Amino acid sequence: MFSERIRIQVEASDKFQHKPGYGRQYTNIYQDRLKVLKKYIEVPSDWKQLADAKERVLDLQIGKLAYCTGVIVRKPANKTNIFNDLKKTYHGVKPDHPLKYTTDNDEIYLEDEHGRILLGGALCDKEFLVTGIVASILGMQTTNGVFDAVDIAYPSLAPISDISTEIHGKVAILSGLNLDDVDHEDLRITTLLEHLALTPEIVALIICGNSVKSADPTLVGSRMLRSPVNGAAMSKLDLLLASFCRVLPVFLMPGESDPTSTAFPQISIHPTLFNECRPLIADKTLNMGTNPQFLNFQGINMLGISNQSIDDLHRYDHNDVFSDLDLMEKTLNWRHIAPTSPDTLWSFPYLEDPLILQELPHLYFVGNASALKEREFGSEKKVKLLTVPSFSSTGIVAVVDLNSMTIESLEIKD
Questions:
Q1: Global pTM?
Q2: Exposed, middle or buried: residue 17 (CB in 10 Å: 0-12, 13-18, 19+)?
Q3: Are 387 and 365 in contact (CB under 8 A)?
Q4: Residues 102-147: pLDDT tens digits?
Q5: DSSP per residue over 7-72, as a string?
Q6: Is 6:403 a contact under the CB 8 Å cutoff?
Q7: Is 404 in contact with 374 (CB distance < 8 Å)?
Q8: Which of 113, 259, 289, 393 could form a disulfide with 253 if both were Cys (CB 3.0 to 4.6 A apart)?
């Protein structure tokens, strides 16, 4: 059965397979982000005619129309405080966190290496602004020290490569298996395995996070404190992955509940947690991916994320205006996968920001969403946006045709 399957070349990037450590300051991330993304911002021509360009926030002058580039800093009223959380945890009290960070009364600043200035004006209410976005702001400083913003410019879109050859085959994407330690057989998984075995045009399976269920983690500030590894659930995952790999290649991405670092980006699940799958990992039938993960299917570039970055952006949307697809679009427009990292989405203090988008993918998918939805982004060269729901909740698998980039919803019922 496996020998009859369509085979194509797949490359998995190790860009996010970093070595965790705290040997530097978090400020390096923002400095690098500003340095890199600043050069991609092209302000409108009328800005140059009407206003002065200022290299530093501190150079802005009262009563003069000007524009300046910096990092957006939002001070949400409901943002978690790690010191208060640690104090509660020490005394055995679970920290209580609101569902949303923001309110209509948040202070928003523009900051660079030299200083920051408070933003005001209707733009702050109109634009969805979160900490970590790099942008140029047009406005005028008032006598009370507020920069009255009237317009904003983001970095230009990252380039996207041409698809030079016709590719035949399909890729199945699922997320949220949420295997537990209860001894029972999920007939939907058995049915899925049979379907994959009987569908040779499906060239690979991507599992996009939350493969095992864990106890609810404790959130301390922006850092997840996870419960110990569920050994029985991992044994079930080990056997299931071995079964999948007898049929087709598998790419396993970690998610919030999986046994690896909770810091974003997440490194791959360690091979020593598997027994049956170790030889499959060695021969690349089972590919241990990161989260996010870049994949290249013979010229088709894919970017997959389990869900943490989009979920964190939702916590800034206190009026619930934006969908998952809306926020995915915004990350492409901001040219950054997760701008709220490391402020409210915990990460390690990198010297260089690994989450800057240097190239647009042809397919951008997010797992563990509420429903399977898709959208095209862009005017000339389009990006296919896709949200994939939890398999344990819906029984849905997304099947992507690599030639036409059409999405099929494969629903497996009990």
A1: 0.93
A2: middle
A3: yes
A4: 888 899 999 999 999 999 999 999 999 999 999 999 999 999 999 9
A5: ---EEE--TT------SS-THHHHHHHHHHHHTTB---HHHHHHSEEESSGGG--BT-EEEEEEEE
A6: no
A7: no
A8: 289
